């Protein structure tokens, strides 16, 4: 099957999936079920692309398995974290806005937009099975990026979940583990994963360079659309001490943190001249 038809089929599958989820969300009165499909949806796209390809290579099979591992881990984590806790506060706030037809709004802005982003971001995954692929040194770089990214996401999620599981930490800001070096290790890990898929794609065929629009859009979403900027705006309204965490900790890329305000003040006081 040629790439144009494959892209069209995947677009129809994504649209059908999102429409079904939207109808289900109306019954459940819970739009946050869209998040549960996010990781799994990429695995679906990858498998469809693989199975419809004319002659998928071993490299294409390996990539699809990697996508499945990543997608199922993310969906499984979100299921464990969110199921039974009601609609996510982000969607609940959208739902409660006066004068809004939330059913239509959610179809277009939540399910429709997320489906469109999913289809664009997955371009490297859709292209890979159509390539006459063989492993190279550049492929190894892509695989390494994927491995480091998944490890970052998994470890970051585990560390934060463990911190939150202690009732004494309720309302506190976690700055241990990977969160000591970046405020969003899960987003940084996601960034590496999608860079890895892109590097794998161009390692198979340099003509796939145009699929960079996928990881570029994912990076935009992680940093400025639905990720870092959106999340931190909400957190700061609930936790005033988060401002100091922002001051001393890298937003995205891991980096040694600046000292805490209390520690810096104590150090300054201990080295001040005696009056």
Please give a structural write-up:
This protein is mainly alpha-helical. It folds into 2 domains: 1-133, no CATH class; 135-268, no CATH class. The protein contains 12 helices and no strands. The chain has helices spanning 3-28, 33-52, 58-82, 89-95, 102-121, 123-127, 137-164, 185-204, 213-225, 228-238, 242-248, 261-270. α8 packs antiparallel against α9 (213-225). The protein is globular. The model is unreliable at 263-275 (pLDDT under 50).
Shape: globular
Proportion of helical residues: 55-70%
Strand content: under 5%
| Assembly of the depicted chains | single chain
Listing every helix as H and every strand as E from the N terminus to the C terminus, the arrangement reads HHHHHHHHHHHH
Q: How many domains comprise the coordinates? A: 2
- Biggest sheet features: none
How many extended strands? Answer: 0
Question: What is the number of helical segments per DSSP (H or I, 4+ residues)?
Answer: 12
SS class: mainly alpha
- The overall pLDDT, averaged over residues, is 88
Radius of gyration: 21 Å
Q: Report the span from N to C terminus.
A: 82 Å
Q: Give unreliable regions as ranges.
A: 263-275
Describe the protein's topology:
Elements: H1 3-28, H2 33-52, H3 58-82, H4 89-95, H5 102-121, H6 123-127, H7 137-164, H8 185-204, H9 213-225, H10 228-238, H11 242-248, H12 261-270
Helix pairs in contact: 1-2, 1-5, 2-3, 2-5, 3-7, 7-8, 8-9
Attribute tags:
275 residues; mainly alpha; 2 domains; 12 helices; disordered C terminus; transmembrane; transmembrane helix; membrane; Steroid 5-alpha reductase C-terminal domain-containing protein
